């Protein structure tokens, strides 16, 4: 891979992993418009590691606090707000994890097409708009129940379909449940940690099985650039969310979906 290919793809991955705009829709454009070669498994592992390090770095205090509370309260058979939120993350992760194990091959064989990505980019963008308009935005994370977490986790299963956007569908579900915009986004970021780690581990095992030469130059650049872009993305997204809301992302998704349709026509 050429250096500027690495830079563009790593930044795209870092940004779109957490914004509700679909990473698969963006990663299809360089290959479709510029005829770039597939970046390969090793590069996928690198950008996943970079994204995971970014979200863990940004939410390190939340992770440590909830982790400590979970171990302490589980040992003592008690529940506090922090341990309940930790259980909520665990419960919200299970449906998508099981769906990935059961349906990943089916999705890979039948749903990884440009037209599917264009349709889901537009369709789930409109669903995000509806949830933002219809949601009460009254509830905080302190009121999030385990039932709510399970419902958001069930919605996260849809992220297996390319173009859906994992962050987009979890934020959409949280907004429909009445969560505030910033809390919906924060819980979505928390849910991303175990799934990104699992996806990275799965790709690493696949890479070890396949073997072959490794471009360590591309891996280094991909890891660092995805980390930086993802960290900036999370910070700016949460900082400006209350000011701009989700409508800019809805409009962007509609425009991106239309562009994909034009490219694929």
Verbal overview:
The chain is an all-alpha fold and 265 residues long. It has one domain (43-264). The protein is built from eleven helices and no strands. The protein has helices at 3-16, 23-34, 41-58, 60-76, 81-110, 114-134, 146-156, 166-176, 181-210, 216-244, 247-264. The longest helix is centred in the middle third of the chain and has 30 residues, at 81-110. It is globular and about 55 Å long.
Helix content: over 70%
| First and last CA, distance | 28 Å
Order of helices and strands: HHHHHHHHHHH
Classify the secondary structure makeup into a structural class.
mainly alpha
Total number of distinct structural domains: 1
- Computed over alpha carbons, the radius of gyration is 18 Å
> Unreliable segments (pLDDT under 50, ≥5 consecutive)?
none
How many strands, which pairing sense, and closed or not: the largest β-sheet? none
Beta-strand fraction estimate: under 5%
How many helices? The count is 11
Number of strands: 0
* Overall 3D form: globular
Mean pLDDT: 89
| Oligomeric composition of the shown chains | single chain
